């Protein structure tokens, strides 16, 4: 049950203006696990925009998280451009077949129309429902994959990885047409009133080198972010999976409002590198802790993250390192939120360190008894 003294919108506004707040913002990033909270199958999200929005509201009402996002899977934009997607009855969509398989066919690709193609119109309609449900209580965002990542799904992941070295100009062409789809969708979301958030998993240093990122992803990412900001002044939050430390400064140079990092990256290092330029979000392990761990594990890792990043100059949002697995236990999600509430604000590091030491001892004693 939500026991906060402020709504997420009130909290965000107060923090932005240096006023007193009740706690740090927190977003467990529940993603398609919202279906478990709402009580529907995930397949409903692929055809029922009202269900998408109502599931997001159900998550907010149950846990009191600080943001809601319309986003179901990474493949929605490639699908709208001709890729084939598998839509299971009660699991997240997956890529079955890319839009094209030959370099010669890149010129045949067309940007998607977000009002007509694939599931994009369903997501836009879900945004309208969510805006109506949320009103001024909580900020809503529209998730979108970045141009580079979408390009992989247009041509196939393995083929695109090879193409990067054999024919980088072809990758540029894929990214250019991909970018046009991203721009059109971002504009449609902005017109509804939602702020786009960008996920660029294939730009990770775990997948491609920083050199490849700067040559083949960064120019299109910059153009998309500039387009969004120039359209109505909106600044975006970025998420890139895996290790990202070697490109943090490149991303901060884009003028993003927040950098969401995976659990294998370091909150403390990210704070020191770019915390004076953008908010830091993260990074409790979504699988090893939030899904597989105990509530005590969640409490400890949440406290450790707070100690690492609470004093980041541009702000810190407690978050999982990536979207949570669908079956993440509710008690673990609740523990993340309750821990942030217990810490309160302003964060008192000595008190938090004491809490952490006590919980570790309790956990060790419990483990010995078990």
UniProtKB/TrEMBL annotation:
Gene3D superfamilies tied to this protein: 3.20.20.210
Domain Uroporphyrinogen decarboxylase (URO-D) stretches: 7-342
CDD domains associated with the record: URO-D_like (cd03465)
Protein's recorded name: Uroporphyrinogen decarboxylase
Extent of the signal sequence: none
Record-linked InterPro entries: Methanogen_methyltrans (IPR052024), UROD/MetE-like_sf (IPR038071), Uroporphyrinogen_deCOase (IPR000257)
Coiled-coil stretches: none
Annotated PANTHER family: METHYLCOBAMIDE:COM METHYLTRANSFERASE MTBA
């Amino acid at each position: 049950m939500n026991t906060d003294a402020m709504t997420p919108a009130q909290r965000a506004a107060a923090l932005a203006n240096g006023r007193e707040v009740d706690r740090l913002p927190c977003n467990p990033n529940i993603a398609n696990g919202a279906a478990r909270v709402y009580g529907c199958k995930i397949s409903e999200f692929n055809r029922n925009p009202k269900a998408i929005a109502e599931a997001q509201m159900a998550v907010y009402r149950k846990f009191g998280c600080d943001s809601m996002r319309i986003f179901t899977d990474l493949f929605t934009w490639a699908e709208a451009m001709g890729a084939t997607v598998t839509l299971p009855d009660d699991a997240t969509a997956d890529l079955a077949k890319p839009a094209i398989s030959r370099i010669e066919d890149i010129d045949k690709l067309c940007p998607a129309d977000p009002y007509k193609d694939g599931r994009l119109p369903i997501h836009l309609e879900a945004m309208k429902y969510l805006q109506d449900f949320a009103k001024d209580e909580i900020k809503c965002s529209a998730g979108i994959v970045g141009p580079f990542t979408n390009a992989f799904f247009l041509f196939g992941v393995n083929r695109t990885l090879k193409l990067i070295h054999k024919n980088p100009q072809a990758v540029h062409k894929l990214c250019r047409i991909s970018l046009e789809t991203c721009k059109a969708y971002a504009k449609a979301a902005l017109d509804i009133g939602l702020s786009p958030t960008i996920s660029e998993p294939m730009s990770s240093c775990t997948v491609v080198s920083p050199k490849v990122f700067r040559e083949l992803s960064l120019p299109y990412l910059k153009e998309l972010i500039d387009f969004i900001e120039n359209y109505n002044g909106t600044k975006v939050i970025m998420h890139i999976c895996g290790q990202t430390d070697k490109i943090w400064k490149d991303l901060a140079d884009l003028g993003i409002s927040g950098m969401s990092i995976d659990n294998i990256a370091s909150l403390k290092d990210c704070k020191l590198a770019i915390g004076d330029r953008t908010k830091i979000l993260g990074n409790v392990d979504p699988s090893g802790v939030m899904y597989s761990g105990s509530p005590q594990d969640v409490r400890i890792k949440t406290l450790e993250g707070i100690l690492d990043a609470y004093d980041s100059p541009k702000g810190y949002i407690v978050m999982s390192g990536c979207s949570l697995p669908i079956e993440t236990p509710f008690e673990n999600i609740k523990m993340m939120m309750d821990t942030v509430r217990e810490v309160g604000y302003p964060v008192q590091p000595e008190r938090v360190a004491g809490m952490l030491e006590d919980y570790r001892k309790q956990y060790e004693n419990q483990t010995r008894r078990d």
